[in-house]
Amino acid sequence: MTDLSKALREQLAATAVIRTVEKDLEQRSVDGTIKYRFKTHDGRLIESVYMPSPERKTRAERFRQILEAADVVALIRANRGRDIAAACGQLANVDTRGGATR
């Protein structure tokens, strides 16, 4: 970093240690929230939570409206399952029988 003085860079190099953390746990909620737990080199735990932005749902809804305006029936899944529609994204085409198309 060029915005730190040479003396400070030398002091940091001699005394500071930068270590990585290890992901210890990941839990996912149906609403898209993801809770992470990380473990430091000395065994301490750090928790972090990712919460999806409401803007993402708004963009998905706008995209669904565009598809429906083009006579493409689409749905926005509230949860993330293991079926083909979940694997391919939150939007899925629906056939006349109500099943997801493949």
Describe this structure in words.
The chain has helices at 6-15, 54-69, 84-88, and strands at 22-28, 34-39, 45-50, 74-76, 91-93. It is α+β, with helices and mostly antiparallel strands and 102 residues long. The strands form two sheets. A three-stranded antiparallel beta sheet has the order 1-2-3, with no helix packed on it. Strands 4-5 form a two-stranded antiparallel sheet. The N and C termini lie far apart (52 Å).
Structural class: alpha+beta
Major sheet description: 3 strands, antiparallel
Major sheet strand order: 1-2-3
Which residues form runs of ≥5 with pLDDT under 50? none
Q: Could you state the order of secondary-structure elements as H and E?
A: HEEEHEHE
User: How many beta-strand elements?
Assistant: 5
Shape: elongated
Please report the distance between the alpha carbons of the first and last residues.
52 Å
Computed over alpha carbons, the radius of gyration is 23 Å
DSSP helix count?
3
Task: Name some characteristics of this structure.
single chain, 102 residues, alpha+beta, three-stranded antiparallel β-sheet, two-stranded antiparallel ribbon, 3 helices, 5 strands
